[in-house]
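User: Just a sanity check before I run the rest of the batch. Below are the structure tokens for the first item. I only need the designed sequence back.
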């Protein structure tokens, strides 16, 4: 049954709701729309995206996670996909192409103009996690010796075809970057001046540099964009601040997830299936369970001591928890310091020394607070054992928690991957060994 020959009653009832959704999305800013799409399920997301006006759709699509971009592409008609793909900047196309099947990616590339296809395939030629993969190859540059007036004319001519005009590389012989000049500087300078007189010394990154390192250069320098060059300092593109911030946000999410003993979801939580969440956690739980068997082995080895002084068993969870927390604090601090460039692998001795001292102070503070209640519960001797053990365990935990990330980076392993399971295993096992060793010495068992 239909109401006008081709429209079903269900669709008629849905129209007001869809219209209200469209009005809400159109009225919201791009970040709000991106967040809202991330909360919807796959079918609702595809419908909501199709309700956006064409110009808003491109802006929103660029800010979505690549996994969500792939799902939206799969839900659009082929002509709509081609149109959306062509509207993206080359540096936004590259991450999407990594998510799509090879056949679909090839078809989309062949649908681009020759120039856009050349720009996009050039980015795909660089390693996945390199600065070259995320740079914008469409750059507004001016040759050295150009007047300010001529430079501004040049920016007006190409402004609609490049990603940014706020940072302008100045090129010498062979397209080598000899300086950079901001749009603001050009606007306030005498039109007859030569750009060489108003340009600044360039900060550049290599196309083969690690992407996270390049993003840190942009952030730490407070730059709008940084030129990306080849081995001979020839201009290849720009790494813009918005791309740099996305890279660093993703890196922080990854480090936080792995430090907490799980794999990053790489997409909004509510748009992630239960199976995907399960896969992100189960491997780490298996690793940590295997690590826990070492703790069981240590307790079995000291079974006689536990039988002799049953009160020792009361404080095992407290010691393991305290050591694990202290180690996690140290590891989190050092991993974060490494991420922002405050600490490098060559600082290993200094960092471990500082954290060992911090561990001693933390242990002493906890021992002073805890020795009284421990003596009341289990007697003076057990209180002394517990106090000495807390100092040793905190010192060991902070030392290992600070050293492991730096050693992992030295051998080329992501520090966040090894920190959580290794620290947990080490602190649990060695903490118990220290505990029972001190107990044997103090109690004479």
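Assistant: Here's the designed sequence for the first item:
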């Amino acid at each position: 049954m239909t109401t006008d020959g081709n429209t079903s009653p269900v669709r008629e009832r849905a129209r007001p709701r869809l219209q209200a959704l469209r009005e809400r999305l159109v009225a919201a800013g791009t970040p709000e729309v991106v967040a809202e799409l991330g909360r919807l399920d796959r079918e609702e997301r595809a419908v909501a995206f199709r309700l956006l006006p064409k110009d808003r759709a491109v802006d929103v699509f660029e800010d979505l996670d690549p996994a969500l971009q792939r799902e939206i592409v799969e839900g659009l008609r082929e002509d709509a996909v081609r149109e959306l793909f062509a509207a993206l900047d080359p540096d936004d196309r590259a991450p999407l192409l990594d998510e799509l099947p090879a056949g679909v990616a090839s078809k989309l590339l062949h649908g681009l103009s020759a120039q856009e296809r050349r720009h996009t395939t050039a980015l795909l030629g660089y390693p996945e996690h390199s600065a070259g993969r995320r740079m914008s190859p469409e750059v507004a540059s001016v040759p050295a010796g150009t007047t300010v007036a001529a430079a501004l004319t040049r920016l007006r001519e190409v402004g609609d075809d490049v990603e940014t005009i706020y940072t302008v590389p100045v090129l010498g012989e062979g397209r080598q970057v000899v300086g950079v000049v901001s749009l603001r500087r050009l606007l306030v300078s005498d039109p007859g001046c030569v750009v060489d007189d108003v340009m600044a010394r360039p900060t550049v990154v290599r196309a083969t540099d690690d992407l996270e390192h390049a993003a840190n250069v942009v952030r730490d320098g407070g730059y709008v964009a940084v030129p990306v060059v080849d081995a001979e300092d020839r201009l290849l593109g720009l790494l813009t601040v918005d791309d740099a911030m996305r890279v660093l946000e993703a890196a922080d999410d990854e480090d936080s997830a792995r430090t907490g003993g799980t794999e990053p979801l790489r997409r909004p939580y509510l748009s992630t299936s239960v199976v995907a969440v399960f896969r992100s956690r189960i491997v780490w739980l298996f690793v940590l369970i295997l690590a826990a068997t070492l703790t069981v082995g240590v307790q079995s080895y000291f079974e006689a001591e536990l039988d002799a002084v049953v009160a020792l068993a009361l404080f095992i969870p407290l010691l393991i928890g305290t050591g694990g927390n202290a180690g996690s604090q140290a590891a989190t601090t050092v991993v974060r310091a490494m991420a922002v460039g405050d600490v490098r692998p060559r600082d290993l001795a200094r960092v471990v020394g500082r954290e060992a001292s911090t561990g001693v102070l933390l242990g002493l503070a906890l021992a002073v607070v805890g020795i009284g209640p421990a003596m009341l519960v289990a007697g003076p001797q057990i209180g002394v054992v517990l106090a000495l053990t807390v100092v040793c365990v905190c010192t060991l935990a902070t030392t290992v928690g600070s050293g492991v990330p730096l050693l992992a980076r030295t051998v080329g392993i992501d520090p966040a991957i090894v920190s959580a399971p290794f620290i947990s295993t080490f602190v649990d096992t060695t903490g118990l060994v220290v505990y029972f060793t001190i107990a044997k010495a103090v109690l004479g068992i």
